[in-house]
Automatic annotation (TrEMBL):
This is Prophage antirepressor. Coiled coil: none annotated. The lineage of its organism: Bacteria, Pseudomonadati, Pseudomonadota, Gammaproteobacteria, Methylococcales. It comes from the Bacteria. Pfam families: Bro-N. InterPro entries: BRO_N_domain (IPR003497). Residues 1-112 form the Bro-N domain. PANTHER family: BRO FAMILY PROTEIN, DNA-BINDING PROTEIN-RELATED-RELATED.
Length: 278
């Protein structure tokens, strides 16, 4: 866990559903959230346990001024925030995620960095860095890995792009920005977990038909009903109810996207390109 980060602004307080105050600091032009505020909004009853599951680079300690004086408090970055959202099974988690992506982050990133209102003469903001062709290719490869196994591939492709646009609050046809990578990676992990579970259920259902009906002559209606129930259960699973421990290969692919590896894969994955809307 990192100690007192440098280059931090005073915290800005955002109001979630008029019930929860969420303090946000900008450290080196990146948003950091006060962990106890986030846990309260997500109704996470054991913040210490939740924070212990985060990677060291997703959390830190920062001194915040309170009515009782200076106090060290846990803070989490954007990647850590999305990890906590995925651990919450409360209905409010979805609303909180939408609030963060549609209100909080746009307020912070109006011009690529947050300019605190107390600054007398803020320096000109730098334009946010846009995705390179290699970034876009890496992202398209991840979309292909998620969708290529399904019969309704085209519908899956566009649904995945819709989810990625929604999590970043970046509508089509705008290019993705480099600062979108953490929420994109978190959302991709969630989608990998969901579609992986569904794909396994489909394979298991096919195996049931082959082994139990065709080879052993079991009652087809009974076996098909079991297979259908299993598929419906898999399709309705929330990411928070799934085993979100992805395969080593999937994690490697996401890591390559996060680190902006430019080696390429020898394909543009044009068949999974996003359908842009102007």
């Amino acid at each position: 866990m990192a100690n007192q980060p440098q280059g931090a602004t005073a915290p800005t307080v955002f109001q979630f559903q008029s019930s929860f105050e969420v303090r946000v600091l900008v450290i080196d032009n990146e948003p950091w959230f006060v962990a106890v505020d986030v846990c309260a909004a997500l109704e996470i009853v054991n913040p210490t346990r939740a924070l212990s599951r985060l990677d060291d680079d997703e959390k830190g300690l920062h001194t915040v001024k309170t009515l009782g004086g200076d106090q060290q408090t846990n803070i989490i970055n954007e990647s850590g925030l999305y990890s906590l959202i995925l651990t919450s099974r409360k209905p409010e988690a979805k609303k909180f995620k939408k609030w963060v992506t549609s209100e909080v982050l746009p307020a912070i990133r109006k011009t690529g960095r947050y300019v605190h209102p107390e600054a007398a003469q803020p320096a000109p903001a730098e334009a946010p860095e846009l995705f390179s062709s290699a970034d876009q290719q890496n992202l398209q490869r991840l979309v292909w890995l998620i969708t290529h196994r399904f019969h309704f591939k085209h519908a899956f492709v566009q649904a995945v792009w819709y989810a990625l646009r929604a999590i970043t609050g970046n509508p089509s046809p705008n290019r993705f920005q480099v600062n979108h990578i953490p929420p994109l990676a978190a959302e991709l992990r969630r989608i990998f977990a969901i579609t992986g579970t569904l794909s396994e259920a489909i394979s298991e259902a096919e195996g049931m038909v082959i082994k139990r009906i065709l080879r052993h002559g079991e009652n087809a209606e009974k076996v098909l009903a079991e297979a259908k129930a299993m598929l419906l259960k898999a399709a309705g699973e929330e990411a928070t109810e799934l085993n979100v421990c992805l395969s080593r290969w999937d994690e490697h692919e996401i890591a390559q996207f996060v680190t902006r590896d430019r080696r390429g894969h020898g394909s543009s994955y044009a068949d999974v390109q996003e359908k842009l809307f102007h």
